[in-house]
Amino acid sequence: MNTNQSSTDQSNTNPSQSRYERGLEKLREIDGKAGENVVAALADIAPDFARYLIEFPFGDIYSRPNLDLRSREIAVVAALTAMGNATPQLKVHIHAALNVGVTRTEVVETIMQMAVYAGFPAALNGLMAAKDVFAQPANA
């Protein structure tokens, strides 16, 4: 491990904020209303899971200072494409990627790259998800 930086470095976070507050702030920054809709959809079936969804991925991981949101969303689009079974989440993260400055061309190239590692069916499904997202109005 690099001695200049610990694996738990959270220097870019506000220690007075709770994980939930920090996560909700990051979720809004990345996903806007789309992210809040996902959380709201869980309220009647699994409110604790909705809280975990805010605290861990967004409050702990996305809030880390060592990778910018653009890079994080490119990685998430690649991972969800490679999984091949997470189309609804992939669409949310394609929106998020566009929201944090990833271009449509970069989204397409990221998904195409996954054909090498995850196969053509996964990349094709990812491209169809991107096509659906790109066809929606920008503020959807």
TrEMBL record:
Q: Which GO terms describe its molecular function?
A: peroxiredoxin activity
Q: Where is the composition biased (Polar residues)?
A: 1-18
Gene3D superfamilies reported for this sequence? AhpD-like (1.20.1290.10)
Q: What is any Pfam family matched here?
A: CMD
Alphabetical list of InterPro entries matching this protein = 4CMD/NDH-1_regulator, AhpD-like, CMD-like
**Where would I find the Carboxymuconolactone decarboxylase-like domain in this sequence?**
47-132
- Where do the record's region annotations for Disordered lie? 1-20
Q: Which PANTHER family match?
A: 4-CARBOXYMUCONOLACTONE DECARBOXYLASE FAMILY PROTEIN, GAMMA-CARBOXYMUCONOLACTONE DECARBOXYLASE
Mind telling me what this protein is named?
A: Carboxymuconolactone decarboxylase family protein
